[in-house]
Amino acid sequence: MDHRATADRPGDRGPVAWGVGLASGAVTVGVAELLAGLLQRGGWSRGTPSPIDAVGGAFVDRTPPWLKDFAVSTFGTHDKAVLYAGIAVTLVVLACGLGVLALRTARGALVALALLVGVAMAAVLSRPHAAVTDLVPLLVGGLAGMWALSRWSSGGRQRVRACPTESPQVSRRVLLGSGVAAVLAGAAAVAVGRLAAGGARAGALARAAFVVPKVARPVVVPAGAELGIPGVTPFVVPDADFYRIDTALVVPQVDPATWSLRVTGLVDREITLDWSTLLAKPMQESMITLMCVSNEVGGTLNGNAVWTGWPVRELLREAGVREGADMVLSTSVDGFTAGTPLEALTDDRDSLLVVAQNGHALLPEHGFPVRLVVPGLYGYVSATKWVTELKVTTFAADQGYWTPRGWSALGPVKTQSRIDVPRDGATVAAGTVAVAGVAWAQHRGITGVQVQVDGGPWVDARLGADATSDAWRQWVYEWPATAGRHTIAIRAVDATGEPQTAESAPPAPNGASGHHTISVTVS
After folding, report:
1. What is the reported pTM?
2. How large is the C-alpha radius of gyration of the chain?
3. How far apart are the C-alpha atoms of 350 and 346, rounded to whole Å?
4. pLDDT score recorded for residue 32
5. What is the C-alpha to C-alpha distance for residues 148 and 135, in angstroms, rounded to an integer?
6. In degrees rounded to 5, what are phi and psi of residue 436?
7. Please, are residues 419 and 488 in contact by the beta-carbon 8 Å criterion?
């Protein structure tokens, strides 16, 4: 048999080409990620430490609102993991494509790889605090990948033209084995780079040693606020279970010793506040329910907690806000911005520079060392994590991250309620059934919750104790359930006497609305 004829078949070339591409891609990504991590560890890089993260961040920045809504509603707090999976699949497909191209034309494959590295470089430069030196890892990784692609594609072409005395199957196994080894080495390099960039550092040690400042009036959860209904979200949500929605693909690791907050813009005196100065301020505790604007009707992208911090109005009073200002643009260490109405930061509400949640240091994913919490506003215009700047400005002059992407500039929280139990589609036994959940209207408060069964009259539910107008309330309705299939709807009434609207609206541009409705079967 003519081995060359056998080896030249497309079915024989495919595995070799894929192996060449995957191995070369692994070298490119592995070297770039490893070097980026080492540079970050040594303090020579101020931008995004990972090229993969830079590409992902650039993608998030350019994501249209409809796609963002789809990702959050479909994947919830797992949206970032899904994005990473998508990046991994894309890298694999591109690498295999490079391998196929390399076995046909090495020069074309090298040009294609150079173009891909150029796109990644553009993504790196688009990140906050990026510098030209942050391109070094991609430059070195790209050169290493080109060397690998040239070397292995040459070997691949020789093997698919194997001479009659050499088994192409054996040669392919040798080449593919080398490719697998390169892929594994690349994966290991990525892992080491991540550890170098994001391992235990001063920030983690500082958080472990952090002592929550004492406050004059600690928050006390009133008796009866927690109704004790199995399946209902806890009145105070534990830190680890608190929802997380933000634009940061990688949680920033901020060392409090180097953290500072600048107050700039339309102020009489620009102020720079460091960690020790902030902790010396008179702190207060406040119970506040936070809410993500992407929350669907009946969704769980909200949570209630006890926050410890210093009132933002005191900081702005020290700076002296000039006449004409109507907005404060807060900036995160990762470049995210939120435009908050100035009134919400200077009136009597408990808008805080937060350092602790539920009596503990903030978790890194929730903003350690310092974040903003503002009652009555959706998080996209107020709840900036890892905050580093407050710019006093105007809505006419500046916009937060989400506003030019189609979201409302102001973002007041709408009155909403949710049925936690029973679940939609559940089967329950006939008799008394606890229909229960939570309701919220931050900075207005909840005074009533009503339940409707099968389109009948609205019936008052029993409310848990009221802690504050800034916190949600639990509720329960003891339903005399009869056999059959039933529809249950819920609505809340805020402290102004206004019932929750029945008008259905999606999250964009200013928050979802409508009555949460479920169907259950009674047996």
Report:
1. 0.79
2. 28
3. 9
4. 87
5. 20
6. -150, 160
7. yes
